[in-house]
Amino acid sequence: MSTSPQRFAFKVFCLSASCFRNMASLTPPYPLSSSQAKTRVPVCGYHRRDFDLAVTWFSPHEHTSISGSIATTFREPTTCLAILDTLPLELVHTIILQMDLRTFFHFRQINLRARQIVDQLHEYKVITAHAMNCICALLRTGAASHVTVAEIYHCFCTDACSICKERYGNLVQLLTWTRCCSTCLAKSTPELCVTSVTKTVKCLDDHPKMRTLPGVYSMEEKHYTKRIKIMPTEVALNGNELDLDKRRKLNAKPYLNFMACCALSTYCPAKREVQTGVSCAGCQLTVEVSGGSDDRMWELRNTVYSHDDFARHLEWCEPAQVLWKSSNSGAQKPAEMPHFCQTEGYFVSPY
Q1: Fewer CB in a 10 Å sphere around the end CB: N or C, the chain?
Q2: Measuring CA to CA, which residue among 27, 18, 41, 16 is closest to residue 278?
Q3: Do 95 and 153 sit in the same domain of this protein?
Q4: For 124-166, what is each residue's pLDDT tens digit?
Q5: How many domains does the chain have?
Q6: Has residue 130 been placed in a domain?
Q7: 145 lies in the same domain as 108
Q8: Which of 210, 240, 263 is the last residue before a domain boundary?
């Protein structure tokens, strides 16, 4: 027998209240095996695409024209790399992994032998297959000269936000190449703050800088057409003797922080699989039904989880259990699945 929308809404509202009480308990009320959790993730979870679109991003169509040439050697090389070809290939790979990304691509363009060596590199294959957005962002903003290929790969293989150490890091800060989460970015955490390069801070030539790209940024979907040269605010503050008023001005444009970030999924070398962050449809449903009267509800709704962390979250989230039951144990899409989750956020699709 189907449940009326009014009765369902009342049920979710009551369950959401008990859900917060359950989180204080030591034993989860809905323990799940790994196989059970795996079947629930696509039903009760969704990807917050608007978090990806609020930062620097590129349409997948932009990668189509270069995807073949960026990871494929056209033909067998007929020339060598002089003294480099006398070294063991493993040592050459170790050397080029320590090149910054800009130098790395310049090396690849030397000749067909250099291209062949680069294209055989496992780390290069992985990042060009699954992290092209970040590669393009680094190259087009000028931040590519500040991060090595080894650092790019290492960050791709981690999943925790390096700022709060608690949440899944669904983003990366391009200037410092720091994995971070949307929550820390929204809070303008000092480590993620950037400022425009003015005459006041122009003398700091040795520190990372980049030029932003035109686009739509922040969760307010603000349009920006100008390219702005930016650098980390902490570097600007530490390198200059500024009065209080000038210090405040350096932090007066939080939208710049979004321009300095890009979405980054996670790669597991052991399983050789890529994961994107997951958000809870049950928590979104709770906010919609309750009207978002509790700050904790909004925090849970805006949290992005790794797949393992989301499985643990499901053991506590009763509204997610309601969605699972209404899906007939995964046989169909839950009738009460919020439209917000179906559209993966509230941003208008640019594709």
Answers
A1: N
A2: 41
A3: yes
A4: 999 999 999 999 999 999 999 999 999 999 999 999 999 999 9
A5: 3
A6: yes
A7: yes
A8: 263
Residue 72 makes CB contacts below 8 A (sequence gap 6+) with 119
Q: Which residues contact 221 (CB under 8 A, 6 or more apart)?
A: 54, 347
67 and 122 in a common domain: yes
Q: What is the 3-state secondary structure (H, E, C) of 33-101?
A: CHHHHHHHHHHHEECCHHHHHCCECCCCHHHHHHHCCCCCCCCCCCCCCHHHHHCCHHHHHHHHHCCEH
**How does residue 273 score in pLDDT terms, banded at 50, 70 and 90?**
very high
- Any domain includes 349: no
Chain centroid offset of residue 49 CA: 10
Element (H, E) at 233: helix 233-238
Tell me how many degrees the CA angle 16-19-22 measures, rounded to the nearest 5: 165
pLDDT digits (tens, 9 = 90+) for 1-46: 445 544 555 455 455 555 555 555 568 888 999 899 999 999 999 9
254 lies in which domain range? 171-263
Q: Calculate the alpha carbon distances from 289 to 9, 219, 286, 293, 336 in Å.
A: 6, 22, 5, 10, 11
Structure tokens of 22?
Answer: 């359950």
Structure-token match 């939080």, residue found = 254
**Tokens 């009760």, residue located:** 44
Give domain status of residue 53, yes or no. Answer: no
